[in-house]
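Support case: zinc ion complex. Customer-provided input:
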Amino acid sequence: MKILGIETSCDETAAAIVEDGRHLLANVIASSVKEQALYGGVVPEIASRRHIESISMVAQKALDDAGLAPEQLAGIAVTYAPGLIGALLVGVNFAKGLAFAAQKPLIPVHHLRGHIAALYLTHPGLQPPFLCLVASGGHCHFVQVNSTTSFAVLGRTVDDAAGEAFDKVARTLGLGYPGGPAVSKAAQTGSPTAYKLPTPHVEGPYNVSFSGLKTAVLNVANNAKMKNEPLDIPGLAASFEHKVADILATKLAAAARDTGATTLCLAGGVAANTLLRQKVQQQADLLGAELCLPKLAFCGDNAAMIAAQGYFELQAGHTSGWNLNGYATMPIEENYSDITL
Ligand code: KG4
Ligand code: ZN
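Agent response - structure generated as follows:
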């Protein structure tokens, strides 16, 4: 069963075709990240406009690469939530038009469910249940994946998402956007013990908080500036990166221990972080749990993950009518068919 996936929730315009939720046939991404970097972050208006310009060509290329016509697809899957609303609506409307013209099922996909489905593309044998940390620019969830379409959030960030913290720290340190890769690069030559950063206190066993950590980095930078002292940017980047990776790996391990999870997973843009991958591997080894990591190409936003999840949603009967809308926020547990319109 071949599904075309469409993803336009942030600054990537993407289309991909996946067979049976696990086998990639085509994967096309056009990104406005270089233009967004000029402004130090995603400008929603620019993202929407670039999606409008690119979506038709990106989708056509995915079909051409797979050698398929829309009539040969089993359905059209599209990210409908959460994300930038103007950006989401471009993908939703495009998918609607294509599905209507080809008379194919329209399959709404939750963006974070998609990030998790990236794991099935990397590990075709992976089956739920498993415990997954989903860490992106907008979210940071510890998710119990009960089945391919059933999820329970065990814990989350109470303030900033992990990726957002990387982006803000990168901006403070003048390292550019997107912040995750920039902070990691700077940290390579720094010492993780250069600065003693606080471990934020947070209620709830599996919740995390990054706002205080981000402010602590800002204070170190401002103090150095005021006192006219040199700032060890690689040291500060390394201290921050280690702290974030420690917090996330420790919480994931605690959740795994308490729930008896034997398979741990990472997903989302921050799952590309090498240090986080290493620290989570160490925790998995200590627990005797298996660790599944997504391929780097499937960590950041892409449509392959949406096509993969679309297959499972279609199997579960989760399709929508032509009144499908986009939503800026939506809990991962929610099925589109259960939302009261
Ligand atoms: O999943 P994603 O591509 O988009 C959202 O759904 O938000 O995640 C983007 C986020 C950005 O905040 C980016 O800085 C972060 O993922 N990121 C990283 C790395 N690569 C991307 N964070 C830490 N280390 C990385 N290597
Ligand atoms: Zn994402």
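The chain has a mean pLDDT of 97.

Case will auto-close in a few days if no follow-up is received.
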